[in-house]
């Protein structure tokens, strides 16, 4: 399943009568997203940007932009924030990760914002491989194996990464109001894989302080903690969904596919990093 978006006219973000049951807070301490329950589902508020109303099952999404919010910003919020949460409500595992296809298999990169997930994915996608997703990594269990479902065919990059990695002109999605990142659409020079691929490796990215490239296997308990920390979950208080989510995470974390990956963040080293990852992936 997926989530369908309907965008209505702009409306003021009036004060809501209830307190949010969950909040995402930006590094500067401001509220990025406030989660509210409604009789007919959920309301996600992105202050000064938009409100999104979700049906209880996460299948239907209605967007109410705040006055002055561009259509590109609404689309961006939906694709990268709201849709992964809606999919989690549908019983899908969605991780804050990028992924590429290597040898017909899926290889994922997970980490906090700014650790280079998108740059790695774009680097592979411009040098012979294909990317599966830039941010919301959807996983499905099929025939006893976890598979990556491709996401929207675009990657988001800061200006310096764009200049270093994108060697040929690429089509840009409409500008976004709240970030200087550009969203580049897949095409002839940014290759996208539109077919599901079996999950073969997951690399949790370090902070870039390693003096040289380092890859270390993670124990299941370490992998579980990292997976939970980097997963999307719409309702953290709904016990049945929370139990299913945790059980699926435990099953996934038991696989011997999780590694910690760190390396100096130098664009000139990306070719070497790609080669090391390719050699490490057993396909």
How many individual domains?
2
Protein structure class:
alpha+beta
SSE order in H/E notation?
A: EEEEEEHEEHEEEEHEEEHHEH
Mean pLDDT score: 94
The percent range for helix content is 25-40%
Give the CA-based shape.
Answer: globular
With helices defined by DSSP (H or I, 4 residues minimum), what is the helix count? Answer: 6
CATH topology term of the largest domain: Rossmann fold
Instruction: Give the uncertain stretches in residue-range form.
Output: none
CATH class of the largest domain reads Alpha Beta
CATH architecture of the largest domain: 3-Layer(aba) Sandwich
Tell me what portion of residues adopts beta-strand conformation.
25-35%
Reported for the largest beta sheet, the result is: 6 strands, mixed
Cα radius of gyration in angstroms: 19 Å
Task: Produce the secondary structure layout.
Elements: E1 4-7, E2 22-25, E3 31-38, E4 41-46, E5 50-54, E6 60-65, H1 71-89, E7 93-102, E8 105-110, H2 117-125, E9 130-133, E10 136-142, E11 145-149, E12 154-157, H3 159-165, E13 182-185, E14 197-205, E15 214-217, H4 220-229, H5 239-253, E16 258-262, H6 270-280
Parallel strand pairs: 1-6, 8-14, 14-16
Antiparallel strand pairs: 2-3, 3-4, 4-5, 5-6, 7-8, 7-9, 7-10, 10-11, 11-14, 12-13, 15-16
């Amino acid at each position: 399943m997926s989530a369908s978006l309907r965008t209505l006219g702009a409306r003021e973000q009036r004060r809501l009568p209830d307190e949010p049951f969950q909040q995402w807070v930006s590094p500067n301490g401001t509220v990025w997203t406030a989660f509210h329950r409604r009789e007919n589902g959920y309301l996600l508020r992105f202050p000064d940007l938009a409100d999104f109303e979700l049906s209880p099952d996460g299948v239907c999404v209605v967007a109410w932009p705040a006055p002055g919010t561009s259509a590109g910003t609404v689309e961006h919020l939906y694709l990268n924030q709201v849709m992964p949460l809606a999919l989690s409500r549908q019983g899908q595992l969605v991780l804050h990760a990028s992924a590429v296809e290597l040898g017909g298999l899926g290889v994922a990169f997970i980490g906090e914002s700014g650790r280079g997930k998108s740059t790695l994915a774009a680097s592979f996608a411009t040098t012979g491989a294909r990317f599966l997703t830039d941010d919301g990594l959807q996983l499905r269990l099929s025939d006893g194996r976890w598979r990556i479902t491709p996401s929207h065919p675009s990657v988001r990059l800061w200006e310096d990464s764009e200049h270093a990695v994108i060697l040929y002109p690429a089509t840009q999605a409409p500008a976004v109001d709240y970030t200087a990142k550009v969203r580049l659409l897949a095409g002839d020079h940014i290759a996208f894989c539109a077919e599901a691929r079996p999950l073969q490796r997951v690399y949790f990215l370090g902070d870039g302080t390693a003096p040289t490239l380092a890859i270390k296997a993670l124990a299941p308990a370490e992998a579980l903690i990292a997976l939970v920390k980097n997963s999307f979950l719409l309702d953290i208080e709904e016990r049945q969904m929370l139990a299913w989510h945790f059980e699926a995470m435990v099953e996934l974390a038991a696989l011997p596919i999780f590694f910690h990956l760190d390396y100096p963040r130098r664009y000139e080293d990306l070719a070497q990093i790609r080669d090391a990852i390719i050699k490490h992936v057993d396909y």
